[in-house]
Amino acid sequence: MSRQGFVIGWLLALLAAVGSLFWYQDWLYQLPTPLPSVYKPVPVGTRIQAPQLVNLPADKPVFLHFFNPDCPCSRFNQPHIKALVGQFGRQVSFLVVVLSTKAYSPQQIRHQLGLDLPVLLHTSLASLCGVYATPQAVLLDTRHRLYYRGNYNRSRYCTDERTSYAKRALSSLLANQTGRVADARALTAYGCSLPACPRHDD
């Protein structure tokens, strides 16, 4: 075999390996996130009582963006969360809830997201809201009752407007509509399991 043929063969093998890895990762994140054995469901309509929510504007719904900087799925949906903040930021209080085993400062998270939002390092909010994966969206009404908890989009990159679940929930709540997002793909968590985060609840 000539040297040129060897190089071409090596490059083709490398390309096939990269393609296989990408396919595997894509397939992996299309699977539902395993439900933790200690998971306690939190029904829609439950009032979420947490000190981190007390001083928020009383006339605005609350949107909690559960975010793990080390989760590929969380990184993929960053443009989408920026678009939601741009569209609904004046009507809704947006907060980022960081779930990670690593120590991130609020400034680091704001820089990574490109958003000037309050950043919470209070991991108890995940269990209070029934969240066990990232990224997840939680929407509370003005009385802090759970209105929506689920995925942002069916697409890994949040590009399918027809399944823009979090956006639909925001629009529905702001329009005072009683009908909620009920698609099973919206309410079954997909993404990264929560890491064993150190507690920051004081």
From TrEMBL:
It holds the Pfam family DUF6436. Keywords: Plasmid. The keyword Thylakoid does not apply. SUPFAM superfamilies: Thioredoxin-like. It comes from the Bacteria. The keyword tRNA processing does not apply. Residues 56-186 form the DUF6436 domain. This is AhpC/TSA family protein. It comes from Spirosoma rhododendri.
